[in-house]
Amino acid sequence: MLITFEGIDGAGKSTQIRKLRKWLAEQEVEVLVLREPGGTATAEKIRDILLESRDNISPIGELLLFSASRAELVQKVILPALETGKTVILDRFFDSTTAYQGYGRGIDRRMLQTVIDLSVFSLRPDLTFYLDISPENAMLRKFSEKSLPIAFDDTELDRIERSGLDFFRRVRQGYLDIIKEEAERFVVLDALDKPQTLHKRIIESVSPHVPGKRNPSESSTGDGR
Questions:
Q1: What is the pLDDT of residues 185-216, one digit of tens each?
Q2: Do 189 and 198 meet the contact criterion of CB atoms below 8 Å apart?
């Protein structure tokens, strides 16, 4: 089973992935957690270029770098893991490309889809959790001690995060449009809900896919934070 988490940075994906990983382990499910870009030696080097570089990478160059990283991860790690029966949790997948490079950068959707198709080897998530948050709230979470407007050349921001609020507004709209097109795959969550409330909803969605699952209400759902 492939489970993906989507949303702009600051939505709380990492927290929910950690909680889901713990819960699946309690159900004796073998689980592998990965992130995009990254997950292989080559993909991690590409991640450094994409996120840590101060260079002005063109939108097409950015798309191709993300896609090269994804192709490495899918072919070398994700597909072999799924073939052995593991559950894979992936922090971002091709929906991020559609939202960020399509809506955010303005790349033609037909061109975008061709590149995505090449990089995923026909792989699609079984379930996608989208944590919805406004760009303003996401940035305030990251800089809780600061007030808007945030200086988007801040050294604490990675290259993508420095793209500005208007960029992330387009990205968020992209996600919402994708969800309308593929509603059956997505579980939409309000990222401003309490982490434990979100976790409960996530395990309620995942439980039917877990053989021999315990009743979610009887399972440990971690701490109450």
A1: 999 999 999 999 999 999 999 999 997 765 55
A2: yes
